[in-house]
Amino acid sequence: MSKIKKVLILAPHTDDGELGCGGTISRFIEEGHDVYYVAFSACIQSVLSHFPEDILTHEVKKATAVLGIKPENLILLDYEVRTFNYRRQEILDDILKIKNAISPDIVFMPTLTDIHQDHFTIANEGVRAFKFSTIYCYELPWNNFSFNSSCFFTLSKEQLDKKILAMAQYESQAHRPYANENFITSLATVRGVQGGHEYAEAFELIRLIN
Questions:
Q1: Could you read off the pLDDT of 17-58 as tens digits, one per residue?
Q2: Largest separation between any pair of C-alpha atoms in the chain
Q3: Gap between the Cα atoms of 13 and 97, Å rounded
Q4: Is 9 helix (H, G, I), strand (E, B) or coil?
Q5: Domain spanning 6-207 has what CATH number?
Q6: What local confidence, expressed as pLDDT, does residue 3 receive?
Q7: What is the value of pTM for the model shown?
Q8: Which residue stretches of the chain have pLDDT < 50?
Q9: Which residues make Cβ contacts (< 8 Å) with residue 120, sequence separation at least 6?
Q10: Fewer CB within 10 Å: C terminus or N terminus of the chain?
């Protein structure tokens, strides 16, 4: 880990990165690494009618700031939710541009077994783009029929609290059963027990280049 300088998070939608690896993002930033976050959609079509349609754009800026991500390291793209599978080549082209611009040391993305069509597309095109890089896949249990928890990043209570606070910025998503402190803490506790610590986030290691 001492060789890592740049970390790239691929989030199909705003909040996926925080949910999947928010604590680990906080840990990396505390350790002095430079973290970049790419959200491919602000899900305008899915926002509840009583919120402004662009609310997730504002919420992701606040959430990533809580984790310590620099504003200039947040990249927001405007793909329409649930259409990623129709735009695979455009998405791959965008990922390759980001890869060339950033040259990350490690990449985090959804797991290849994620059943959401947008998540599945980002995972597949992400692996295609970063096949010669170190790749960790994060879990979103409500979308994962299977998940190989082959790697754990342990978290301090402070790092877990930052993840919880980051998710609290998503007022428009508060109705979702996984977007709450109890769920986030419970999952971190389970993964912590599995990894022999108090708290952790689990990942599927796809490729390790050292």
A1: 999 999 999 999 999 999 999 999 999 999 999 999 999 999
A2: 48
A3: 19
A4: strand
A5: 3.40.50.10320
A6: 77
A7: 0.97
A8: none
A9: 85, 110, 112, 114
A10: C
pLDDT at residue 2, rounded to an integer = 61
H or E segment to which residue 18 belongs: helix 16-30
The encoded tokens of residue 157 equal: 């209570």
In the prediction, which pLDDT does 70 show?
A: 98
CA-based end-to-end distance of the chain: 10
Q: How far apart are CA 33 and CA 27, in angstroms?
A: 9
Question: If you ran DSSP here, which 8-state letter would residue 145 be given?
Answer: S
- Whats the size of the chain, residue-wise? 210
Domain boundaries, the chain: 6-207
pLDDT score recorded for residue 107: 98
Gap between the Cα atoms of 188 and 203, Å rounded: 12
Reduced to 3 states (helix: H, G, I; strand: E, B; else coil), residue 199 is strand
- Residues 14, 104: Cα–Cα separation, whole Å: 20
Name 65's Cβ contacts closer than 8 Å, sequence gap at least 6: 71
